[in-house]
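[job 0417] fold request received: DUF2007 domain-containing protein
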Amino acid sequence: MAVLLFKLRGVPEDEADEVRERLATQGFETYETQEGFWRLGEPAIWLRDPEQFAAARRVIEAYQAERAELLHREREARRARGEADTLGRRLIHQPLRLLLLLAGAGAILALSLLPFLGLG
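[job 0417] inference complete; emitting C-alpha cells
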C-alpha cells in the first residue's frame, strides 16, 4: 500500500518540480494526488513502496536543507546589496494597501468600542 511522502499544499511549484525530479532520479516509484475542484483532496506525492520510505525521506530532507541554505544565502546577498524586502519598502511600493489595512483596523476598533462609548 502506498504511503504519503510529501504534501504539496503551499509548496512553490519550483520546489515541487525539484522534489519530483530528485525522486525520479533516485529511482523511487511515486504518484501524485491533486486537491481537486472543491479543494477537498490532499495534493501530495505518494510513494508506492513503503519499504523505501526512509530512503525517500532522506532524499527530500537533504534537498530541503540545500534549498534552505540557498535561499538564506540569496536573502543575505540581497540584504548586503540593500535590496532586501523591508516593511518600509513594502509601504512605499503599496500605499493603497497600507491605507486599506489602516481603514479596516480603524473600522474594527470603532465597532468594538461603540458599545462602551455609548455612541451606538
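[job 0417] notes: Strands lie at 3-7, 30-33, 44-47. The chain has a mean pLDDT of 93.
[job 0417] exit 0
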